[in-house]
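User: Teach me something about this protein's shape.
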Amino acid sequence: MSARYAEIQKQAAHDLLDGKMLIQQENGVYRHLACGAPASWTRLTVITWPYNLLVAGSHGSFHFERQGDDTLDMLAWIRRVRVDPAHWAGKLVNGRHSVEEYDRDTLERLVNERVSEAVNDGWAPDGLREAVAEELLGDEWMDDEQNAKRLVSEFQHGMTYRSECSCGAAEDHDSYDSACRWQFYVHKQTSKDHKVSIRETGGFTFDDIFDWQTSQLDYHFIYQCYALKWAVARYDQLQNYGLGSYGALKAVAS
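Assistant: First, the predicted structure itself:
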């Protein structure tokens, strides 16, 4: 379990410490369970029907659906599996993407990993770490995923270029603009005998930025996963002690 998951689990357990359950409806796999924890003002509702489970309350609403021989009763599914938010997210009706959020720390970690690889492999241009820290990591636009990925994708440092003509002439440059000037104003490409191409010969850029995974699961979804496991355990406790009928009439301390 990650440190983040452990902290959220701890918070959910704390909030639900004095939780009480009210069985508002129970008809086979059709259930409506309402939970409340007065000290933390935490509310939790669990509703089930064939192949479906809805958990809602203070930390949002999430609808799970599983079609299978063993998921007619979704509480049975919750009972037999450990809490695994990453796996459970794939069972959401709205899909995993609905509970993902941009994580700047993850993006910055990936940026630093690429820079370290270039430095350790010995091909990083001088001043690369400093340039990344100043031009990227310190930019407030990094707080927004779309802007952050654009900034990273456009970043260049220590770039060099070479202009080469079909006639054999060539020249190296430290900027793309310089290479273009040589092509049009110095060498003066004017005929089919003088076809100039420009290519990168060095420098550092970030590749495949938009394929990077820079999201994490939403805090509230993870919280509700642990709260759901708690609710099922409390429900089973009421049933095992023969208190289900009392729970249907009034709130019963769990």
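Now, about its shape. Residues 245-254 have pLDDT under 50 and may be disordered. The CA atoms of residues 163 and 198 lie 5 Å apart. If you'd like, I can walk through any region in more detail.
User: That's plenty for now, thanks!
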